[in-house]
Amino acid sequence: MKKAISSPTKFSLPRLTYRVWTVWRRDFDVFMKTVQVNFLPSVLEPILYLVALGFGLGTLVTTINGAPYISFIAPALIAISVMTGSFFECTYASFVRMYYQKTFDAIIATPVSVEEVIGGELLWGATRATINSTIVLAVVAAFGLVSSPLFPLIVLLSFVGGLMFASIAMCFTAIAPNIDFFNYPSFLLITPMFLLSGTFFPLSQLPQAAQVAALAFLPLTHVTNIARGLVMGVMNADYLLIGIPWIGLATIVFFILSINLMKKRLVK
Amino acid sequence: MVSSEVLIKGQSLTKKFGNFAAVDHIDFEVYKAECVGFLGPNGAGKTTTVRMIYCFLPVTTGKLSVAGMDVSKQSREIKKLVGVAPQEDNLDPDFTVIKNLTVYARYFDISKEEATKRATDQLRFFQLQDKQNVDIVELSAGMKRRLILARALLNQPQILLLDEPTTGLDPQARHLVWDEVRALRKRGVTIVITTHYMDEAAELCDRIFIMDNGKIIEQGKPSELIKKHVGDDVLEFDMDEKLFDALRLELPGAVLETFGDRAHVYTAQSHGVFERFLEKHPASNVMIRNANLEDVFLKLTGRKLKE
Asked: CA B296 to CA B299: how far, in whole Å?
């Protein structure tokens, strides 16, 4: 069948108004309802990693680039919390709202548009990432592992990085036939990034080709590298020059793409 | 009073899903302050039509305007004027009863104080005030339907779309809904209902559209449609060849329908026609009753199950 001339699902730049915040606010209200349950894992998880890997494994590893192992992994834990916070929010949680709860359908019957619903979800995903990473930052600081005055910029990095991961996640949500589908991006994307993005060992340990691949395809590499600079004060300048435009571009591309894919799924 | 101002107008309105035309070139008008019903078997296209009116589904071809605005261009403005009670339960299970209403009001830019006031009023009307701090999962099916209706009224809509509003309700709750619909109509709200219940349509609707296979096959006032298609009375009897043949012979205009071993006979004639017939042909297990909209519906859409 030929497409109608002005197809409402035609690829376009999303038109968003302040109404995205009403959707964001809905998710925020739900979060606040269960805030205690949300906080505990965010606090406990980095403590476990710091104790097990930092004090446990870290005593076997001497230093990395002159810093103790625990200081090396601390910023990575912040970056990882940005990734997981937004990714799981905009896959499993968004899918539940869309598919099982029909929450999006209910909102679309009001003056809020489909694009704004998804825009609000993405902003919430970024917020969730920021909340999580701020908690991890506080834990890291409590362990005395923050040594750069630039650390408040972690909040900005978390929001932008969170928006990027949220947008990537939402692309999967747009094509997910069912909720089990998210096992694929979790194991094929999130787990490799968790381990191979210069998180628990320097990227330079990888073969040359893998280093290039990590910089080219794994967004967490860039978030980790910048986080390390903001927390420890040492940064690989080359990585930074690639990292900032990489994150900026990926955020814009996936933000626009995910809203269009979701529109295609929801507007029949 | 129903005015002559057209508030919703569909022209050759068509909705296709792939190659399947769920709504197939329908024309209809809904006047301001009118209550109209879309009737039809499952899959007839009623819900699809309603979903196009509130801009949930884009129109494939044809035209649809609401309050003078094109649904494909001014969806946001239209949605501000419309209250929607969908068929399925899409209440927000993450919130309590009252929070469902105040969060929903926020999507309409209603201030917090005003939202709380309206929510409280609606909960009182729908007799849900005792449940206001209860989670959605704890509500019965009937309470959920009532809450969906309360939610549809939060933005004080000019047009109210009710997609099977009383499915699953007990008689008390049904009457509560009917009372509200009548009260809203009196206040000048234009109401579009889809329903399977003919008594509901006859009770509430000024006019009805009967849909089948994506088309509007008949429309008019319930009482006129009854008179036109099935007359004043319906004769029902246990299937009996002799009686059947006699009816054929003496009431040539009559429509005879059988299902199982029960026969229904419709004429377009007024009271008394069956009494006179039965005087000549006495029989047992015979009933003469008032014709109703269900007879019209079954006559026009057939008795076969649609799914």
From this structure: 5
Q: Are residues B123 and B248 part of one domain?
A: no
Tell me the pLDDT tens digit for each residue of B137-168. Answer: 999 988 999 999 999 999 999 999 999 998 88
How long is chain A?
268
Three-state DSSP at A106 gives helix
Q: Which residues contact B96 (CB under 8 A, 6 or more apart)?
A: B132, B133, B134, B135, B136
How far is the alpha carbon of A13 from chain B, nearest alpha carbon, in Å?
Answer: 17
Is-contact A137 A151, C-beta < 8 A? yes
Residue B247: per-residue pLDDT? 85
CA angle in degrees (0–180, nearest 5) for A247-A251-A257: 145
Query: Is B303 part of any domain?
Result: no
Is B79 in Cβ contact with A29 (below 8 Å)?
no
Q: In this predicted model, what pLDDT tens digit does every residue of A51-65 receive, in sequence order?
A: 998 888 888 887 888
- CA B215 – CA B58 distance, rounded (Å): 18
CA atoms B166, B168, B170, B173: torsion sign: negative
Mean of the pLDDT values across residues A34-55? 87
DSSP structure class, residue A98: I
On whether residue B302 sits in a domain, the answer given is: no
For A92-141, write each residue's pLDDT tens digit: 999 999 999 999 999 999 999 999 999 999 999 999 999 999 999 999 99
Whichever domain contains B142, its CATH number is: 3.40.50.300
What does residue B10 show for φ and ψ, rounded to 5 degrees?
-110, 130
Q: How far apart are CA B126 and CA A70, in angstroms?
A: 60
Judgement on whether residues B36 and B93 belong to the same structural domain of the protein: yes
Contact B90 A105 (CB under 8 A): yes
The ipTM, to two decimals, is: 0.89
Chain B contact for A5 (CB, 8 A cutoff): no
Tokens 């073969």 map to which residue?
A: A207
| Residue contact B92–A106, C-beta within 8 A | yes
Q: Which of B177, B155, B193 is nearest to B40 (CA)?
A: B193
Distance of CA A19 to the CA centre of its chain: 23
Query: CA-nearest residue of chain B to A110?
Result: B79
DSSP state of B180: H
Check whether residue B271 and residue B126 sit in a common domain: no
Of the candidates B214, B231, B155, B206, the residue with the CA atom closest to the CA atom of residue B37: B206
Is residue A268 within 8 A of residue B48, CB to CB? The reply is: no
Question: In one letter, which amino acid is B197?
Answer: Y
Decide if A171 touches B, using CB distance below 8 A: no
